[in-house]
Amino acid sequence: MTRREFIALDGGWGWLIVCGAGLSSMFIVPVSQVFSMIYGNKFEELGISATEMSIIMNVNQAFGMILALANVPLLRNYGYRKIAVIGQLLYSSGIILTSFATCFIHFIITYGMITSLGSTMSFSANMLAVNTYFNEKRGQAVGVYMLVAGLGQIFVPHVISLILSIYNSEGTMLILGGMTLNHIIGALLLHPIEWHAKRVNNAENKSESIKTIGDDANINHQMRKLSILGLRSEDVKKSSAPRAKNKFLLMGMIQQVAMILDLELLRDTVYMTTFTCLSFVLFVELNFNVLMPLILDELRFDMNSIATMLSVLGIADLVFRGLAPYIGEWLRQPPMAMLFFSLVINLISRMALIFTQTYVATLIVSISLGVAKGFRIVYMNILISTSAPLEKFAAASSIQNLGNGCIMLIASPVLGLIKDIAGSYILCIIFLNIITLLILIMLLGLFATKYIKNRKKLNTFYELEHVCKKCDFNCQ
C-alpha cells in the first residue's frame, strides 16, 4: 500500500509554525509558576493546608499528562491544529472557572483537571507540529519554539504583581483567563503540512520524508482493515469453546489498543531508561518552579522583589534556550550529556539558594537557575523527539506524559507534608536535591552502559579488520 508522505520544509512556513506554537504556550508555564504567588495567602484564608496546596498544583501538572495517551488517536484523526484550538479553549476555561473557586474540590476540578487537560493537549499538538515541519533543523526549531514560549516568564510575574496590587486573587485569575484566550491565535497558525509541502507517493521512502500524523484517509483505511477487536469473524467462529472465544477477544482487544497507542515503544530499553530519568527530572523541576515564589517569600522578600527574581530567571532561561542548541553543537556533546550538565548546575544552584541572605546573591542564584532551566528544557525536548521515530512521536510524547503524571500524583503530597511537619520549605529543597542526585547516578549508569557497548563494537571492528588484512581475497 502506498502511504502519503510529505517532505519536511525545514524553513518557510515552518518558522511561522514555531512562532504560533510558542505564542500558544507563552502563558502556560508562567501561570503555573506564579499560581502559588496568587493564591498563597488566599489558601490560608480558605483553610487549605500546604499538603492540599501541593496536591492541587501537582494534579494540575499530572492530570493532563495521565490522559495524554488519548492524544495519540485524537492527533491522528483530527490533526494538531484542531487539537491545539480545543486545548487552548479548555485551558482558558479552566483558568476562568478557577477564579470562582472557594474550596479544595473546586480547585482540583477547575485548576487541577480542566486547565491541566487543556495545557497538555495544546503542548502535544505544538510539539507535533514543530517536529512535522522540521527534520534536519529540528534542534534549532525546538530551541526557537522554547525561546518564544519562554517570553511569558519575563513579563508575566510583573503583570501578576501589578494586578494583585489592584485586584484580589479572584480578579487576578479572571483577568489571566481572558489574556490566555489570545493563545487561540497561535493555535490557528498551525497549518497542516499538506497545505505547504510537496506530497511524495513512495512506500519505500524512509530517508528525509515525514509522515502526516493526522492523515485521516490513512487512519480510516487502517481502521477498516482491522476489525474493532483485531480479529476476523471467521477466527472466532472456528473456536467452539467459550473460553477460547473470550481469550481470542481479549487478546484481540489488547493488540488493537497496543497498535492504536503504539505501546510497542515500551519494549525499547533505551527509550524506557530515558523515559524514567526524564519523568523524575520533570517532577523535581516543576515542583521547584511552583514552590520558588513561596521559598522567596519565606526568605522575607516582598512581592516586587519576588517578581523581579522570577523575571531574571526567565530572562536567563530565555537567552539560553536560544543558545543551548548552538552551545551543544559547539561542544560536540550529545543531548543527554548536555542534560546532565544542566542538572548539575541546577543541583548546585538550589543548594546555594538555601544559604543566600542578600538580594544580590539571590539574583545571582536566580540567573544560574535560569541558565540550567534553559538547557534542561531544550535538551529534554530534543531527547523526547529523538528517542522514537517521527511516526511514533505522538505516542512517545504521550507515554512520557503518562509516566510524568503518575509520578507526580503519587508523590504530590510529599512536599506539602514536609512543609506542614517541618514548617519550612528548606527541607523541600533538600528532598528535591536528593532526587536530582539519584537521577545523575542513573544517567552515569546509562553513559557507562553505552560506553561498554560501543567499546565491544569497536573491538569487533578491529578484529574484523585484522582478519581482512590476512585475507587473500580483494574485498574492496
UniProtKB/TrEMBL annotation:
Annotated GO MF terms: monocarboxylic acid transmembrane transporter activity
Native organism: Ceratosolen solmsi marchali
Coiled coil: none
Gene Ontology terms: cellular component: membrane
TM spans (from-to): 12-35, 55-74, 86-108, 114-134, 146-167, 173-190, 272-294, 306-327, 347-372, 393-418, 424-448
Membrane topology: Multi-pass membrane protein
Compartments, as annotated in UniProt: Membrane
Name of protein: Monocarboxylate transporter 4-like
Principal location: membrane
Keyword annotations of the record: Membrane, Transmembrane, Transmembrane helix
